[in-house]
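#structure-requests
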Amino acid sequence: MTANTDDLLVATCRTMIRTLLSCLDNATKGTIYKIGLMPEVTAVRVLSGVRKSDAEELEWGLPADSEYNPPGKKWELYRDQPGRALEAMGWCVEKQRSWTADNPMEDPRSVRKQISGVPEDEFHMEPVLVRKKSLYGNSRKLQYPVDWQGNSIWMDSEFVVSAVVKIHFKPGSLKAGDHATVAVHNLARSLGSELLSLWFREKLYQAGKEFARQRLQSCEILAHELRNTLVKLGFVFSAINAQIGILRERWESLLQNHMPELEWKGPLLGELCALLGQRVPELQSSAELLTLAQKLQGEQHELATLYLSPFQDREWVKNKIYPKWEKLLLSTELWDRAQIESLLDRLENSLATGMSYDPLSNIDGLPVELLLRWSRLAYVQITSGNLPQLEEVIRLVEEPALPVSHKEQMLKVLKSLRAIVYTIPEVEEKATSILQSLRFGNRAEEDEGFGPDVLGLEFD
């Protein structure tokens, strides 16, 4: 049971004990034991209340040393069994009947008398019964507790024992079947109803907790799948930018043919490759530097063949070209540092050459307005934050005068990708809404800590 339900159980037992001791003048102490569910039926002492002399005030708590204190005593240890002292608890639970010890000297179920010969005080124990159907429904697969011979108990009864009430009395004041035992029996029925209510409360709480766990687990699984799907959709932007790369390649080729005075990265990278290649054979004595130089050579060749955006070019040079050259220059004097650094500076400056179109230049008689748009749009990087520029790119490709091969095919690709791109926000919004409903039920979207970025996605 949860802590909250335990508190309610203790409060219920406190009320029951107080009521019994108030009604029974000769009663001195009351204890209530909780009997666990089948088949374990572990008996656990919940609470004891002891009358202070003849006062109405009670002392509450559990005995300092008892086998029935939490976590309790298992059924196998208190049931009737040969060679072991008989317990009143075992009788009440197995027989579902009360036990009255009105003659301690003759009580065959006084554990203290059987073990040490010292009689206990007078007491009455009453099992608290609840209907089996109320706890277990109509299930036919119940696992019943068994006696020491392996025979199932309670199988033929419509009740199960949910608790046991034990009331102690002053010497000579208890008689089997008197009004005191009847009062305990009647009040035990009331306790049974209270315990059943608590059990239903606990089952409802546990069911709700399990449902919440499963709902959260389903939410996490669904979120993972949706996240993967949306990430895959995010690669649409890579496909769009690859098409723009074709526009960029054609634009730079056009400029190089008509404006030879401009400095481009290709020739500069060619010079760097040549200088590097001349000295690579001299690095045979250092496997580390040889590997570094060979890797640098491959990356310079690759960059020379790519038509990336200026930003991507700069990142490539910054992260792949500069660090390797710097390490080579620090490790050996095979190259002229000033010459290499000059080429690297010129390379840096050349990366945005294609964006430096002079509108006064006449290229193949193309309209200046078209050239200006082309020079600008050839270097855009489409993300979810600048989708309007995708429309501009499509209108540029639609221009009859644009001298780009396979325009119709490019146009079909861009329009198809555009259709997918515009569905991504809608998919993300609906996915967020579904996850909110699944995780938080009917909570509104503005619930704290759950915003539109529930999937943790950002498309670039």
